Amino acid sequence: MLPRREVGRRRFFRFLRWTIGPDRDREPVHLFFCEGEDEDGARCGADSGEQADAGAAREWTFTHLRDHQDHRSYGQLTYVPLVMVPEEEPS
Ligand SMILES: [Zn+2]
């Protein structure tokens, strides 16, 4: 039996063990973006757009480099959907 702790006057919070992990029902999203600068020092800021396919998003960097060979700094953002799962469902 897991311990119980009184919270407030009428509500009880039951301690549960939780884990966090990937939510398989939702897709990750990948975005690559250019951090290169134009000759005037302005940040380029071009990006791949949000893509479910990481390889396609990465491929955008090579396409961008082909047209802007002095833009060699890039960043990558990846959204990973997560879900919290209790060891057992609260009753
Ligand atoms: Zn660029």
Category by helix and strand content: alpha+beta
> Which range does the strand content fall in?
25-35%
Q: What is the count of helical runs?
A: 1
* Main beta sheet strand tally, sense and closure: 2 strands, antiparallel
Proportion of residues in helical segments: 10-25%
Give me the side-by-side strand order of the main sheet: 1-2
Overall pLDDT score: 88
* SSE string: EEEEHEE
Shape: elongated
| CA gyration radius, whole angstroms | 23 Å
Intertermini distance: 12 Å
Ligands (ions, cofactors included)? zinc ion
Low-pLDDT sequence parts: none
**Total number of domains:** 1
Number of strands: 6
How would you explain this protein's 3D organization?
The protein has one domain. 15% of the residues lie in helices and 33% in strands. The protein has one helix at residues 54-67, and strands spanning 4-7, 11-14, 18-22, 29-34, 74-79, 82-86. A hairpin with a 3-residue loop joins β1 (4-7) and β2 (11-14). The model has no long low-confidence stretch (mean pLDDT 88). Bound molecules: zinc ion (ZN). Zinc ion is lined by residues 34, 36, 44, 46, 64, 68, 71.
